[in-house]
Write a structure and sequence with these properties.
Helix content of chain B: under 10%
Radius of gyration of chain B: 32 Å
Largest interface: A-B, 77 and 63 residues
Number of strands of chain B: 30
Structural class of chain B: mainly beta
Largest sheet of chain B: 8 strands, mixed
Oligomer: heterodimer
Shape of chain A: elongated
Number of domains of chain A: 3
Shape of chain B: elongated
Radius of gyration of chain A: 33 Å
Structural class of chain A: mainly beta
Strand content of chain B: over 45%
Largest sheet of chain A: 6 strands, mixed
Order of helices and strands of chain A: EEEEEEEEEEEEEEEEEEEEEEEEE
Number of helices of chain A: 0
């Protein structure tokens, strides 16, 4: 159940026809042992294995068999690359016999000798994950990120000693047996900047939380920002699960939650949700809906109207620490502000983002009054919302 | 006492015959280490306990494989970590190995530049240990004060004893991507590279089966030691979590449960409030007891975790009680006012009556067809208090839509608009009396909904 390479010499001269490979035969060959195996991990795709061999090749055509019984791999992705003198050593054909677990390269060599080659293949079942442990200081302003590479080998092949390359700067040597998992720490070049944020999205959160049987709380977490410098001192962060711990005032380490970090490039930011706070309560109430500028047809039937809406937000912080809240609300369709009780930024035509600093034990109320324009009452009502083109 | 854990330190002369033996067979020599201290952080919002197991290990020069294995309990292998307490020691953890064909086992490869003795902390998530708060409230006979006692029951069904553990109870909603029990049940620590989906299906099936088993009553396995001496509980905030630390050390025995008092306030000021809300309680009036979770009430400056509250009412000075009701509280933030819902109160009633009715402002379209009108109701809310205490009553009313108006309110200062559909009256009715609130409710129908805005 392993990948093997077999070299056997075929006494051929120019014009000689190769024996029919489908017939029974006996073969005697040399089994070269790889001198090194490199496992190159990629962000999304499977791991690429590159084995370094020295093959003893005679002058003329030599058949090199590569077989993988018990291992699943893509035969079309198997490559043999001579490392020296590519002009005099050429792979002239690749033959796939019917059993589909081996292939035969016919290598034309212009002189007898030992040739260094790389054999590359993509075995199924060999891949990697990245996991992180983030430890926050008690004041939640600094974060220490530990990264671990998890190498999983279910390929059917054992690698007694492999050099595993995560990227150009990160590599290590390890043994990895078939059906084995290994976890290897690797350095994170620079810790991201961190800021605690409470995140309320009107589309997902209950608007009347106090009247809910089970109030889930406002999601909170940490906005991570990777420094955007161009030096080699920082590196992108690979995607992976992050488990977040907090060193509290008593220097105890408390687990506070986990989230999935997507690939985070230098200079980019990501909100890592860690838990939900029940000390922040946000209530949204519709206080008023007034119709205006009603337009009718000759039969008196209403066709188009405007609507002035007042929504009230009540934000309560019952904890003894201030909170930075990002509140997201949406107003769909054509609209214009009338009296907006809090500053906001527009993410798009309908998404309003409010950055709100709420002091300890503070309650704040503000109203948003806006006018929804040209609402269709009968026909074309689908155009009361903006569709994505 | 169940001790399924073994932390094994292989000697440098270990003989492992894996290559010449069948897959599961192995001969090895190991030095057992003993736990020096256990810390257990038991979470309330999820089936998760963070265990920190402190041990001392002698390291030989060179590579030291340290094996950790478990059986009979569920541990999330992806949470396993080993930390060396003294970072200045010449020790480096080079990797963690989850050996092939060896379930529930991890080996840390630790390189020592010179022989040394080190304290290590093994950290992992386990399941089956939980804590549940519950409260007892005893109302004074005049219903102005209550004695409030909060207890917490810690139950260990993890399959594992944790002797002399430092126990921390963590309250707060943590964000988890996976159930810890599912991760513990995976056949491979991080799943399989090529068959992750089928692993997930299998793990899900196992988890569903175990959930059914866990939901079945299993209390016959428990030895309730409620009578044990209560320990002091220290409270501290950490981020948006509250940590309750039990004084001293405590043995968490598998199958056992303990109830400990974590808060006691002898005289919490309370108000009794009656609530009438047809959208929630139909025609009944519900009795509520309200109190503030703050230091002035004797409850301190911390939030209270949610749990069942059993409320009793004192009926005589000699300790006679009657059961007044039960409620399940949500999390009660510090400083906030909370209502305990006790159930219907037949001595207080709210009866809405339509005393007058008229259709006004009838409108017609150009074909003389009726197109809209206003309904005008003269309303009377008849309140009655047959108890021997004043009754503070909140009456909530919900309109079917926003096309209505209210006028002629007899007790304007007792009226409050909540939003475009809801309004309420807050009234105090003396004992043994009746009171009536009058108002006029005008609802717009048909074209009047639009005309009033034109």
């Amino acid at each position: 159940m392993a990948i093997r390479i077999l070299i056997f010499l075929v006494l051929v001269t120019a014009g000689t026809v190769l024996p029919d490979r489908s017939c029974a035969d006996t073969r005697l060959g040399i089994l070269p042992v790889p001198e090194a195996a490199h496992i190159r991990l990629s962000d999304q795709g499977p791991a690429l294995v590159q084995e370094y061999h020295h093959l003893s090749l005679g002058k003329g055509i030599t058949q090199v068999t590569f077989s993988w019984p018990g291992v699943r791999l893509d035969p079309d992705a198997v490559r043999l690359t001579p490392l020296e003198d590519p002009e005099s050593i050429r792979v002239i054909s690749t033959v796939f016999p019917p059993d589909s677990t081996h292939l035969i390269w016919e290598v034309d060599c212009q002189k007898t000798g030992v040739v260094p080659v790389i054999i590359s293949y993509l075995p199924a079942g060999l891949d990697s994950l990245v996991t992180y442990t983030a430890t926050l200081t008690a004041d939640e302003t600094d974060l220490d990120l530990d990264a671990r590479l998890v190498l999983r080998n279910f390929s059917g092949q054992t690698y007694s000693l492999a050099t595993v390359r995560l990227d150009a700067d990160t590599m290590f040597s390890t043994q990895i047996l078939d059906r084995e998992t290994r976890q290897i720490p690797f350095p994170v070049s620079q810790n991201p900047a961190v800021k605690k944020i409470f995140h309320w999205d009107g589309q997902r959160m209950p608007h009347d939380p106090k009247n809910q049987d089970a109030y889930p709380g406002v999601p909170f977490g940490y906005r991570l920002t990777l420094p955007a410098d161009d030096s080699d001192n920082t590196a992108d962060l690979r995607a992976g699960k992050v488990r977040i711990f907090l060193k509290d005032a008593q220097n105890r380490t408390l687990f506070t939650g986990e989230d999935s970090l997507p690939f985070l490039a230098k200079g980019d930011t990501f909100f890592l949700e860690t838990g939900r706070s029940r000390d922040i309560v946000i209530t949204k109430r519709r206080m008023n809906t007034d119709k205006k500028r009603i337009r009718r047809n000759d039969k008196g039937k209403i066709q188009v109207f405007d609507q002035v809406v007042t929504d009230r937000f009540i934000l309560e912080n019952t904890s003894d620490t201030p909170a930075e809240i990002q509140l997201i609300d949406r107003i769909s369709g054509e609209w214009e502000p009338v009296d907006m009780g809090h500053a906001y930024t527009l993410e798009d035509h309908e998404t309003l983002i409010f950055d709100i600093f709420l002091g300890a034990e503070e309650t704040r109320t503000f109203d948003l009054t806006y006018e929804m324009l040209n609402l269709f009452a009968d026909k074309f009502i689908q155009f009361n919302k903006v569709s994505q083109q | 006492m169940i001790q399924p854990f073994r932390c094994l330190l292989f000697s440098s002369l270990v003989l492992i015959l894996m290559h010449s033996m069948p897959a599961q067979a192995r001969i090895d020599t190991a030095v057992l280490t003993h736990t020096r201290q256990i810390q257990a952080y038991i979470y309330h919002s999820a089936d998760l306990t963070l265990i920190k197991d402190t041990r001392t290990i002698n390291f030989a020069e060179g590579m030291n494989p340290v094996r950790f294995s478990w059986s009979g309990t569920r541990i999330d292998p992806t949470s396993l970590s080993l930390d060396i307490s003294d970072r200045s020691l010449p020790l480096e953890i080079t990797q963690t190995q989850f050996p092939a064909r060896q379930k529930n086992q991890a080996i840390w490869h630790i390189n020592a530049q010179e022989p040394c003795r080190a304290e290590v902390v093994i950290r992992y998530f386990t399941t089956g240990i939980s804590w549940q708060p519950h409260y007892t409230a005893i109302l004074s006979s005049d219903q102005t004060r209550m004695q409030w006692t909060g207890q917490v029951r810690i139950t260990n069904r993890s399959g594992m004893d944790y002797p002399d553990a430092r126990v921390m109870l963590v309250d707060g909603e943590i964000h988890l991507l996976d159930r810890i029990a599912d991760l513990a049940d995976q056949p491979f620590p991080y799943g399989r590279a090529d068959t992750a989906s089928s692993d997930t299906d299998r793990a899900g099936m196992i988890a569903r089966g175990k959930a059914i088993m866990e939901s079945a009553p299993a209390l016959m396995l428990q030895s309730d030691t409620t009578g044990s001496a209560p320990k002091n509980v220290h409270k501290a905030r950490a981020s948006d979590y509250v940590v309750y630390t039990l004084d001293g050390e405590k043995t968490l025995s598998d199958g056992g449960s303990d109830a400990l008092i974590f808060i006691r306030a002898p005289s919490v000021p309370v108000d009794t409030l009656y609530v009438s809300d047809t959208s929630r309680f139909k025609d009944t009036v519900i009795r509520m007891v309200t109190f503030t979770n703050d230091a002035a009430s004797g409850l301190g400056s911390f939030p209270l975790p949610g749990g069942i509250v059993r409320v009793f009412q004192a009926i005589d000075p000699s300790g006679g009680l009657v059961f007044a009701g039960t409620d399940t509280t949500k999390y009660i933030p510090a400083g906030s006012r909370h209502q305990l819902r006790l159930g219907p109160e037949p001595r207080v009633s709210v009866t809405p009556r339509v005393m007058g009715y008229a259709k006004t402002l009838l409108t017609f379209d150009k074909h003389k067809n009726l197109s809209g009108f206003d309904e005008v109701r003269t309303m009377a809310l008849e309140l009655a208090n047959f108890s021997d205490q004043p009754a503070k009553i909140d009456i909530f009313r919900t309109a079917p839509d926003s096309h209505f108006s209210i006028s002629g309110i007899s007790e304007q200062d007792k009226f409050e608009k909540i939003d475009q559909h809801r309004f309420k009256f807050s009234v105090t009715v003396p004992p043994g009396t009746r009171q009536t609130i009058h108002y006029t409710l005008t609802t717009h129908q048909g074209d009047r909904k639009w005309q009033s805005a034109s």
